[in-house]
Amino acid sequence: MALEKQKVARKTPSLRQKSLNLDFYGLSVLINFKTNVKAMRLRVGKDAKITLSMPFYSTQKMALSFLEMHKIWLENTYKKALANLPKDDEIKFVVSDISEKWNTYNYDFPVPLKDNKYPYIAKATMCYFPLCDRLQGVDYTNTELNLHFGRIGDDRKIKDIKGDKQNTEDTLDGERNYLLEGEARKQFRKWDNVKYIAESATKRMIPKDSYKNKNWGMEVKTNNRLAPQDGVGVRFGVVVTLKEMNGVNRIDEFIRSCTLNGWLVNAIDVVNRVDIHQKMNEEIEFD
What we know:
By secondary structure, this protein is an alpha+beta fold. The protein is 18% helix and 33% strand.
């Protein structure tokens, strides 16, 4: 019995995308010709990469004409993207936790020293999501988290970078610190679930002195307007930025010190995460 091979027709995969790099007045533009694109889309990413998506059967001449039409916008947007790129002279880290008690704290942030001084301008941004009650109106939340961040003085208290005296204990002389609510809202964003504290940058920037304790500390004080349990389990996150005054990169030194102090350090590439998020949300058309 003779056996014959059965011939099966196979469909060759069709080309769905082609790319090329184009030099446009000194700007590198990646042009993607896609079958699932019906209109031209020009984009400048946060990493300052320029991409132009076009229909598959478009021509390079059409791409150049489109770029010429949007040349001014492209140059301005590209400059803004370059200005917003992460700087090597900034130490930026994220701390997240859950508020369970009145005071959530940590006093082990090993900020690098230079000649026994701290050559940084510090700022911190905190965000949290408290409970709200419509009876309190739009001006109040059920829970207020008060952020303190700075060096640890010889009195074992945090020298807040903003000079915030809220929720602090009495001084040695028995002096109490009073602050009107209007001033607290204006200076420290009281009852706002986004807190921003920063040192003021001046033309004459002088490094700050260090104390016996070389670490920096952070405290988050919890206050409740209604029920005490409202502030239990409130998750918060703080982004801290330390700008080096002389433009020196001290990131590796900071990571090494954190590791020696028992911190688990995970590097975050924000631009890469944005690209992954966009890739995951792309629309795919199947034949």
